[in-house]
Design a protein that fits this description.
mainly beta, Lipoprotein, 1 helix, six-stranded antiparallel β-barrel, OB fold (Dihydrolipoamide Acetyltransferase, E2P)
Length: 105
């Protein structure tokens, strides 16, 4: 019975995110908008973003983002997160995206 309880506590611990390796995202801070360049737009659903540190990220829209096609090869505002992120234009329009992964430039 005691082993069963420890097993359940271990699963709860892992599922709550307490076991995540914080070094995975070292150097990245969420909650800060940064300037980034939008280099590819797949009909407002998938974007490629070049961050200030020259990392290229593929992000996928939670809902269709109609204005991004006008900003290809231009700077936008980017709020990075390991799971989800946001993009914003200078007019203040914001779209939410899922963070799909880092790509080689």
């Amino acid at each position: 019975m005691k082993q069963y309880m420890w097993g359940i506590l271990g699963v709860v611990f892992l599922l709550s995110g307490c076991g995540l390796n914080k070094k995975m995202f070292a150097g990245d801070s969420t909650g800060q908008w940064e300037r980034a360049t939008l280099i590819q737009d797949q009909f407002g659903s998938q974007l490629k973003i070049v961050r200030q540190n020259n990392e290229v990220w593929l992000i996928e829209a939670k809902t269709y983002c109609f204005w991004t096609k006008r900003y290809v090869n231009a700077e936008i505002w980017f709020l990075w997160g390991p799971v989800e992120c946001k993009v914003k234009n200078d007019a203040g329009e914001v779209c939410e995206f899922w963070t799909k992964g880092k790509e080689e430039p």
